[in-house]
From TrEMBL:
Location in or out of the cell: Membrane
Topology in the lipid bilayer: Single-pass membrane protein
Protein name per its UniProtKB record: Late embryogenesis abundant protein LEA_2 subgroup
InterPro entries, per the entry: LEA_2, NDR1-like
This protein's record includes keyword Transmembrane: yes
């Protein structure tokens, strides 16, 4: 005998009757939109990563290609070192006052020779510094310029002014000898920032070291030089 079903109104002793089906209401699943937006966000992030990775790979490939091209051109042309000379020098004033202030007026004329046939040089920065007894006493700046291939360029500079210069014992001894002879031993250093040009390709910026040491320059107002005249000096060129 079947058990009495709770949804029957009267007594019933037959077989069990399944409950009536409940009315089904259709609702939009609240998780569907979230899932959709989540998938969309993941796709966008994935696409963004792919695009960024592609751009990085392209930039790396371009850099490698340019580097290889520059190396090939460098090996083909084998550029020779640019030659720097102090062609002429005039020392109009060079004297210390009691407070160790050096009053100076120095003209330095440089000759720059580019011996390369297919290589030009951009001089983006160019300054000349004067030294006495390893102490810097003044400098002069030169406007940027381009030097073509197989070209000789003349640069005129004037280092003038006054500065506090404290000399060591050895330099003071040298100064006394220079004052006696009227010929002063002065060093010059060039501070450069250059780029080389191979056809349409330009190299990265380089900062070569140019040293023009032991320039023997007679003081113009001195009567003890014995007719000594300045002799041109080739400067040391170091690209490292």
């Amino acid at each position: 005998m079947g058990s009495k079903q709770p949804y029957l109104n009267g007594a019933y002793y037959g077989p069990s009757i399944p409950p009536p089906p409940k009315a089904h209401r259709s609702y939009n699943s609240p998780g569907f939109g979230c899932c959709c937006f989540s998938c969309l966000g993941s796709c966008l992030r994935c696409c963004g990563c792919c695009i960024l990775s592609l751009i990085c790979n392209i930039l790396i490939a371009v850099a490698v290609i340019l580097g290889v091209a520059a190396l090939i051109l460098w090996l083909i042309f084998r550029p020779n070192a640019v030659k720097f000379y102090v062609a002429d020098a005039n020392l109009n004033r060079f004297s210390f006052d009691p407070n160790n202030n050096l009053h100076y007026s120095l003209d330095l004329n440089f000759t720059i020779r580019n011996p390369n046939q297919r290589v030009g040089v951009y001089y983006d920065e160019f300054s000349v510094c004067g030294y006495y007894g390893d102490q810097r006493f003044g400098s002069a700046n030169v406007s940027s310029f381009y030097q073509g291939h197989k070209n000789t360029t003349v640069i005129l500079t004037k280092i003038e002014g006054q500065n506090l210069v404290v000399l060591g014992d050895g330099a003071r001894t040298d100064l006394k000898d220079d004052e006696k002879s009227g010929i002063y031993r002065i060093d010059a250093k060039l501070r450069l920032s250059v780029r080389f040009k191979f056809w349409f390709i330009k190299s990265w910026k380089l900062k070569p070291k140019i040293k023009c040491d032991d320039l023997k320059i007679p003081l113009g107002s001195s009567n003890s030089t014995g007719g000594f005249k300045f002799q041109p000096v080739q400067c040391d060129f170091d690209l490292s």
